[in-house]
Write a structure and sequence with these properties.
The chain is an alpha/beta fold. The protein has two domains: 140 residues, Aspartate Aminotransferase, domain 1 (Alpha-Beta Complex); 242 residues, 3-Layer(aba) Sandwich (Aspartate Aminotransferase, domain 2). Helices cover 38% and strands 15% of the residues. A seven-stranded mixed β-sheet has the order 1-11-10-7-6-2-3, with helices on both faces. The protein has a four-stranded antiparallel β-sheet with strand order 12-14-16-15. It has a three-stranded antiparallel β-sheet with strand order 9-8-13, with no helix packed on it. Helix 3 runs parallel beside helix 9 and helix 4 crosses helix 5. The chain is globular. The structure holds pyridoxal-5'-phosphate.
Length: 394
């Protein structure tokens, strides 16, 4: 850090306190319900359709499909469930391997474990914080071969069935390059776009580069349904299968209960979808306001020696969580200590998946950049400020 690290932290606390006034304690990310949320919830209760059948679920799916440009969207109870089913639909089965990031939220690896798969961790890029196409290609060239129409890990003898990159904090990774490599190697691409609703690469929404992708509407995400998720895809058959699997695999019939495989009770309830429909009406303005918050941080950190994480040229971030990269682990810890003790919530990035007890045996490529980032990245408060609420209602 140029100059005095503590003076930067002190000025930042003042800046954030001003930005989020009159809130006294500033959280990392809180939801905003300034639209038709209450009205749609009441409508939902009045209609008696509160559970997994109802018009709001279908409307929410249509809104997400339209917004992302995906052909189809299937709503689920949460993002983890969405990813579990998406992996199964991508052909991931027991004892298959799935290449992913060590720098991600644990839900990514939990979901692929539910699908019976074993994670393999490949490094991320320092600029995007997302899966590195260079590291992916290097890993495959060193450890994999193509045969019998699939891709096999020579070291473990297992099939590499899928690759699950994740757009960290809504910053798009080099997804087009990753898609080309997955294609060359016969690996299914499933994007974990849980954090990147509203993030684009050129005019393509994140989550539209692979066979399937998943979103999350948990309470801390850009928009929320309380809890919720979505599978998006351009493939009509996969979308149909997704709907079937997430609704207990019930065979359509006017009154009989017949199920033709083991399905899941993963459908998003209508109550949650009602919230989602109202939140989607606010999303474009929320993204504009969040870009304004990012601009404030960009200006603040310019010339301080602290680097503010930016999307690549041609890419658009949703600015879900703003992130900075500090000079060292010691600087990071001092920064976290100072800001959190003054009611400005800041957080380090997740502990790497490769260091968690349940995944520490998993194969990885050394993860040099992931480890470098793990010690330095910090998230900053990124909610829509109360002072901007009038713009949401306008
Ligand atoms: C939020 C999130 C998920 C899904 O989380 P749910 O809480 O199950 O909706 C998955 N992956 C990542 C990277 C996430 O941030």
């Amino acid at each position: 850090m140029k100059g005095d690290g503590e003076s930067i932290a002190r000025e930042l606390v003042d800046m954030v306190a001003g930005l989020y006034a009159p809130e006294r304690k500033v959280p990392l990310h809180r939801p905003v319900f300034e639209g038709n949320e209450k009205q749609y919830l009441v409508d939902c209760i009045d209609s008696n359709f509160v559970s997994s059948v109802g018009a709001k679920v279908v409307e929410f799916e249509q809104r997400i499909a339209e917004f992302t440009g995906a052909g189809y969207a299937v709503a689920t109870v949460n993002g983890t469930a969405a990813l579990h089913v998406a992996l199964q639909l991508a052909g991931v089965g027991r004892d298959d391997e799935v290449i992913s990031q060590a720098l991600t939220f644990v839900a990514t690896c939990n979901a692929l474990s539910y699908a019976g798969a074993i994670p393999v961790f490949v490094d991320v890029d320092r600029d995007t914080l997302g899966l590195s196409p260079v590291a992916l290609r290097a890993f495959l060239e060193a450890h994999a071969e193509r045969r019998d129409g699939g891709c096999w890990n020579i070291t473990s003898g297992r099939r590499i069935a899928a690759c699950v990159p994740m757009h960290t904090f809504g910053i798009p990774l080099r997804i087009a390059e990753v898609a080309v490599i997955c294609d060359e190697w016969g690996i299914a691409l499933v994007e974990d776009a849980a954090e990147s609703l509203g993030s684009w690469v050129g005019d393509r929404h994140t989550g539209t580069f692979g066979r399937l992708a998943t979103l999350s509407f948990n309470g801390n995400k850009v928009i929320t349904t309380g809890g919720g998720g979505m599978i998006i895809t351009d493939d009509a058959d996969l979308a149909k299968r997704a709907k079937h699997l997430t609704t207990t695999a019930k065979v359509p019939h006017p009154f009989e209960f017949v199920h033709d495989e083991i399905g899941y009770n993963y459908r998003l309830p209508n109550l949650n979808a009602a919230l989602g429909c109202a939140q989607m009406e606010l999303l474009p303005q929320m993204l504009e306001i969040k870009a304004g918050v990012a601009q404030r941080y960009r200006d603040f950190f310019a010339g301080t020696g602290v680097s503010f994480v930016e999307p690549l040229p041609g890419a658009t971030a949703n600015w879900w969580l703003n992130a900075i990269v500090l000079g060292s682990e010691e600087e990071r810890d001092a920064f976290l200590q100072y800001t959190n003790s003054r009611e400005v919530m800041t957080r380090p990035v997740w502990r790497l998946m490769s260091r968690l007890p349940m995944f520490q045996q998993c194969q990885h490529d050394g993860l040099e950049t992931s480890r470098w980032l793990e010690a330095r990245v910090v998230n900053l408060p990124s909610s829509v400020p109360e002072s901007e609420f009038p713009r949401l209602r306008a």
